[in-house]
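Quick start: read one record
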Amino acid sequence: MIHFQTNRPRADRCPRCGRLRLFGLAEGWPYKVDPVPITLRAELAARIQGRQTWWLSAGRLVWRSPERIEGGHNQPRPAVLASHDCDVSIVPADVDAAHVSTVVRVLAQGSDGSEITESEVDTFMLLARQLGARVLTYSPDEPPF
């Protein structure tokens, strides 16, 4: 183990279930997580199932230890991801929609944060397909109806 090494998450497909996942090192510990931000209820369910949870900080993942979970109650909830488990399906009700774009930017790796790039759009569409969702495009020049 390389102590305290943390790297940017990289994406691959799980060889068992074929779903997209992120992997890397966080403070020297290897992780494999689903690239879907989850709600507080979904995080509780994941922890009860024995799955670890991680939060995104500056494009890197940080393990949510009990102390870190407890200490963050007076701050806005970060994008939280759960460890990958092939036998656990991602339910749309468990997705924290406020942080989907944050995860898409991490998946696309390379955005400077200004405009949504073509790579980010492709990644967002891939994530939407993984969730079984339909994406509607919207332009301020055209009404959405």
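Residues 128 and 145 are 21 Å apart (CA to CA).
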